[in-house]
């Protein structure tokens, strides 16, 4: 199969029940905007994944399915070994329909109503909804502030640290030393750790991802992740987890498979994961390089227009987290210009608890990135 991929090709996603394109009015109040919003990409998934899905469809029978088969579990182990240089005990694996469903189940297991759940700020809005929706108290600490982190973990009713690794929305990749320090703090204060590593496969060159499995030791912890982010197939559903303690794994599976009735996973999700992890590394490296070019373009255009920003691309992912505070722009006024005049949808930082920022999705053909960043520059120029 060719190793040349055309990421410049535009795929029309309109009319496909797509949240980013067809659902833009739900968040921004206007249809027809050019969207740079929800965290999926405008690229087709890897051709290796598509070929595997077509072959599975050709079989024609889609009965109940078991995720506990070696093809799936060994593919995950292969990925961890080849991508992260990390051995994986496949007996620690669990399965869930999504990363957030796993998060909710683990929070039910390890916390009670009113307990404190610690997160880094700015905070992915899915975390906030899951934590507060379960009646737990979300407690934020700024990214990189170790003193504040220990202060929150030391509180008597702090029960879980929800870690985003790499961090969304900032794109921060935690170092091995930082993760080891977090593990030590969590262990010292008896706090469980849930590490969401769904952005891990999209780290950029020079910023290696360190799985929590390397630092978690015998503490109470879980990794929750999926190939769906990096390989762009979230609509297939499906995620997997790695849970440190055998008793916690057993309880998680009991809840998922009996209380939640989720014993049988989506077979196309398993198929896609296996193909991605066994055959998709070359495609992923190519799309990462292309997105890195998109991010470099954003930096060039933004800093050329507004040198005081000094904006630098994130260490991971395709989400440009842009601090506009040095320009003194009013958030609401900027959004009005972006929507009403420029006809683009860009996520405001307030969604993540960070007014003055924007999150611009550049997981798309370069022509769309150019249109988005130029619209942003024009809108900011109007509002300065």
- Compute the gyration radius: what is it? 21 Å
Helix content: 40-55%
N/C terminus separation: 50 Å
Give a short account of the largest sheet. 7 strands, mixed
Apparent shape: globular
Order of helices and strands: HHEHHEHEHEHEHEEHEHHHEHEEH
User: Numbering strands along the chain, what is their spatial order in the largest sheet?
Assistant: 2-8-7-6-5-3-4
Textual characterization of the structure:
- The chain has helices at 19-22, 24-28, 47-59, 70-84, 99-110, 125-133, 146-153, 176-189, 228-231, 246-259, 267-279, 281-305, 331-341, 366-383; strands spanning 34-36, 93-96, 116-121, 137-142, 158-164, 192-196, 221-225, 239-243, 319-323, 344-348, 357-361.
- By secondary structure, it is α/β, with parallel strands linked by helices.
- Helix 3 (47-59) runs antiparallel to helix 11, helix 5 (99-110) runs parallel beside helix 6 and helix 7 packs parallel to helix 8.
- It is globular, with a radius of gyration of 21 Å.
Keywords for this entry:
11 strands; four-stranded mixed beta sheet; globular; 384 residues; seven-stranded mixed beta sheet; alpha/beta
Describe what is shown at a glance.
The protein is of the alpha/beta class and 384 residues long.
């Amino acid at each position: 199969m060719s190793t040349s991929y055309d990421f410049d090709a535009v795929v029309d996603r309109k009319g496909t029940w797509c949240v980013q394109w067809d659902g833009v009015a739900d968040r921004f109040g206007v249809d027809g905007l050019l969207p740079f919003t929800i965290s999926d990409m405008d690229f087709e998934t890897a051709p290796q994944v598509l070929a595997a899905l077509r072959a599975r469809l050709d079989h024609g029978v889609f009965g109940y399915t078991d995720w506990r088969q070696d093809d799936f579990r060994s593919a995950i182990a292969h990925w961890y070994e080849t991508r992260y240089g990390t051995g994986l005990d496949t007996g620690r694996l669990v399965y869930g329909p999504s990363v957030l469903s796993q998060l909710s189940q683990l929070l039910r297991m390890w916390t009670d109503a009113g307990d404190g759940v610690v997160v880094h700020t700015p905070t992915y809005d899915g975390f906030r909804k899951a934590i507060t929706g379960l009646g737990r108290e979300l407690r934020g600490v700024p990214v990189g502030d170790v003193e504040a982190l220990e202060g929150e973990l030391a509180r008597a009713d702090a029960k879980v640290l929800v870690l985003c690794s790499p961090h969304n929305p900032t794109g921060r990749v935690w170092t091995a030393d930082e993760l080891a320090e977090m593990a030590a703090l969590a262990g010292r204060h008896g706090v469980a750790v849930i590490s969401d590593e769904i952005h891990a496969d999209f780290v950029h060159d020079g910023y290696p991802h360190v799985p929590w499995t390397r630092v978690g030791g015998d503490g109470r912890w879980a990794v929750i992740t999926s190939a769906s982010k990096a390989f762009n197939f979230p609509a297939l559903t499906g995620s997997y987890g790695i849970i440190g303690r055998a008793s916690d794994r057993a309880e998680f599976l009991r809840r998922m498979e009996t209380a939640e009735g989720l014993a049988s996973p989506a077979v196309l999700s398993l198929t896609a994961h296996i193909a991605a992890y066994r055959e998709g590394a070359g495609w992923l490296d190519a799309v990462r390089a292309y997105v890195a070019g998109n991010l470099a373009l954003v930096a060039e255009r933004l800093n050329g227009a507004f040198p005081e920003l000094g904006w630098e691309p994130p260490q991971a992912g395709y989400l440009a987290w842009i601090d506009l505070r040095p320009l003194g722009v009013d958030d609401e006024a900027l959004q009005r210009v972006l929507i009403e005049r420029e006809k683009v949808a860009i996520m405001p930082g307030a969604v993540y608890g960070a007014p003055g920022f924007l999150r611009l999705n550049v997981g798309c053909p370069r022509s769309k990135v150019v249109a988005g960043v130029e619209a942003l520059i024009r809108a900011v120029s109007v509002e300065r």
